[in-house]
Model the fold of this input.
Amino acid sequence: MGRASKGEERRAQIILALQDVMAEKGYERASIKSIAQAASINPGLVHHYFGNKQEILVSLVEDLGQRLHTRYIQQIEESEDAPRARLFAFIDAYVGLGPGADPKAVACWVSIGAEAIRQPEVRETFMRFMRDTLEQIKLRLTEVLADEGRQITNIEALASVLLASIEGSYTLAMAVPGLTPQGYASPTLKQMIVGLIEQQPLREGKESST
Done:
């Protein structure tokens, strides 16, 4: 892979600056001036690379999605080659506090969810990421259910519950700091989804291995 151009580096710098400002102040209070200050550049350079603040936000959604995917791939590569291990690696990548965890990104993601409700352009990118994430969850769950000889008819509901729980853990942690124990999300979500998996009926002729 070749070295990023100066323009690509500058755009990435501005996108990361918006993340930092949003994590502290939220989107509404993230002015071009404050983004430029966080990036240690002149406000004119922000306008040179992005037409407006919304363009930066859409790019930030894409960037955060890519970073989460990269962390997930790394977790998968480091996990055991078993369906449950891959499912747990997915959960760790999204809510775990291990290497690569980024509290600022989580805080920013909560604000992005709110902006997706209000801004169609942001919603489109946000929804695409949510759909892709849901498909990844369905894939991981399907592997587990098939490996354990369980029926897969309820996969949509199981995947949706897990995705909603992940997003809810983000929102709760940011909206009411200190209410929930630090690091609770990953182990609790694993226990929850294992319980739901083990409630799924076995296919005819299969015996439980758990």
Remarks:
- The two ends are 44 Å apart (CA to CA).
- The chain has a mean pLDDT of 90.
- The domain at 55-198 is CATH 1.10.357.10 (Tetracycline Repressor; domain 2).
- Residues 116 and 123 are 4 Å apart (CA to CA).
